[in-house]
Specification:
The protein is globular. The protein is 30% helix and 17% strand. The longest helix has 17 residues. Helix 1 packs parallel to helix 2, helix 3 runs parallel beside helix 6 and helix 7 packs parallel to helix 8. It is built from 11 helices and 14 strands. The chain is of the alpha/beta class. It has one domain: Aldolase class I (TIM Barrel).
Length: 353
């Protein structure tokens, strides 16, 4: 299977094209510090061609999941070393996904601080906080003067990631978080340098890519996008046009890869963003969202994708590439334990006998 063939990714040689997608698991505790249980979890899945970690905070008081990890302190950086060392000891490769939640953060998880966004528009509905379910709050529209500091926070996170031993970083530009909130016109109603045209709405993303690439080299930087996904009350008036625009502009960055979520988790927004991006983008494309092994193989065989990222497949099957190779059945994931503390539903999924 081509899915299980080696591939080059920037400066890295990957053992296969079955990528572990980023999956929030909320095991880092209230101080957002990685731990030995997380090291065990990721090391179990080191047979993935590449592991992309869960979203990782670049700044304090930006929590959207209560117990997600961070990479903004020396302590966190040092703690991540146990993860990278455990994965590398099993000949695995691992990128850190660096992230700002923007308006998805909640004051009850952020010492009362109001979240920021491109515009002062709240997400509809409620989120989980330590106090129970609470409505999302209206964010503060970040000023143009604050944006350079945010860009440098991404660069600092990349610097720490390199010091912690990661093979690279993935910039989280998807799923309704801060970069995505700037990219799409449903959440970005700004005027000026960071609003209006696609060029202006993408300016923040491009500035982050330049700063992070300058820090660790563009060949060790990936980017995740989800231009159709409505998660987090997201929408855009022209997602296909935005996909084409970004694909063309991203060619100049020489990234390790472009990681694309192909659809909408809620099925509200329809369209094909993969085809135009494949036509225009010259680099490596990783597809994600609901692929079976057979569909992933076909997508790679026909040249639509270079690799495929599996989410819950890797969550429940630490040895997923071997299961694909032998056509063995997959363990079923248990959603009840996706975000609960401890080893249950985390490191206790069985390997093949």
């Amino acid at each position: 299977m081509k899915l299980l063939e080696p591939m080059r990714l920037g400066e890295l040689s990957l053992a296969n094209r079955a990528i572990m997608a980023p999956l929030t698991r909320s095991r880092a505790g209230l101080e957002h510090v990685p731990n030995a249980l997380m090291a065990e979890y990721y090391a179990q899945r080191a047979s993935a061609g590449l592991i992309i970690t869960e979203c990782t905070m670049i700044l304090p008081n930006t929590s959207a999941f209560i117990a997600e990890p961070g990479i903004y302190t020396e302590e966190q950086m040092q703690a991540w070393k146990q993860v990278t060392q455990a994965v590398h000891a099993k000949n695995g490769k691992i990128f850190l996904q660096i992230w700002h939640a923007g308006r998805s953060a909640h004051p009850d998880m952020c010492n009362g601080q109001q979240p920021i966004s491109a515009s002062a528009i709240a997400i509809e509905g409620e989120t989980h906080t330590p106090k129970g379910k609470s409505a999302y709050v209206v964010p503060r529209a970040v000023s143009d003067d604050e944006i350079p500091g945010l860009v440098q926070a991404f660069a600092q996170a990349a610097r720490y990631a390199k010091q912690a031993g990661f093979d690279g970083v993935e910039i989280h530009g998807a799923n309704g978080y801060l970069i995505d909130q700037f990219l799409r016109d449903g959440s970005n109603k700004r005027t000026g340098n960071y609003g209006g045209s696609m060029e202006n709405r993408a300016r923040f993303l491009f500035e982050v890519l330049k700063a992070v690439s300058a820090e660790i080299g563009s060949e060790r930087v990936g980017l995740r996008l989800s231009l159709l996904n409505s998660y987090g009350s997201m929408i855009d008036s022209d997602p296909i046009g935005l996909a084409r625009f970004l694909a063309e502009r991203l060619n100049s960055f020489k990234l390790a890869y472009l990681h694309i979520m192909r659809g909408d988790v809620f099925g509200l927004q329809k369209g094909d963003v993969l085809t135009p991006m494949r036509e225009i983008y010259n680099g490596t494309i990783i597809g994600n969202m609901g692929y079976s092994a057979d569909e992933a193989e076909r997508a790679i065989q026909n040249g639509q994708l270079d690799a495929v990222a599996f989410g819950t497949g890797f969550l429940a099957n630490p040895d997923l590439p071997e299961r694909i190779r032998t056509q063995a059945p997959w363990n079923a994931p248990n959603p009840q334990t996706f975000y609960t503390p401890g080893a249950t539903g985390y490191t206790d999924y069985p390997f093949m006998s």
